[in-house]
Write a structure and sequence with these properties.
Number of strands: 0
Shape: globular
Structural class: mainly alpha
Low-confidence stretches: none
Distance between the termini: 21 Å
Strand content: under 5%
Largest sheet: none
């Protein structure tokens, strides 16, 4: 199960209006009518707008860096590290803990994802990043 923020649901509703009716995918492949978008596409998009690949002028971004940024900010804000790691689909490295802890942290992840989306909206509106604060654990 995966929770989505209000912002992501709104984006999916917008995308639905532009969806290819012959494809079951939200992000279809342009080269394969029955396939989905390549995992390399977001990286190529960053390259095209001048932030990825060999272009170092605007800083070098990779899509995995967005995950690292989110993890760092959410940890610094005080969200449950286990919930963050589970949201990132990371597995527990401690084998004993992994054998016993099967928690999904769904409620925490839901509120964390909404807080993250609200934070990104604030950053976009202000044009600057300020610390994310944990409202309720």
């Amino acid at each position: 199960m995966c929770h989505f923020s209000k912002q992501v649901l709104a984006a999916f509703r917008e995308l639905e209006q532009h969806r290819n009716p012959n494809s079951p995918y939200v992000f279809p492949s342009f080269s394969n009518p029955h396939g989905y978008m390549s995992t390399a596409t977001p990286g190529k998009a960053l390259e095209r707008i001048g932030y990825g690949g060999k272009n170092k002028t605007n800083g070098h971004l990779v899509t995995h860096g967005f995950r690292a940024t989110a993890s760092t900010i959410l940890n610094e804000a005080g969200f449950n590290p286990d919930a963050i790691e589970r949201q990132l689909s990371h597995s527990e490295q401690n084998l004993v803990r992994a054998a016993y802890n099967r928690a999904e942290y769904l409620n925490e992840r839901k509120s964390m994802l909404q807080a993250w989306a609200d934070y990104l909206d604030e950053v976009h509106q202000r044009g600057e990043a300020k610390p994310l604060t944990l409202i309720s654990p």
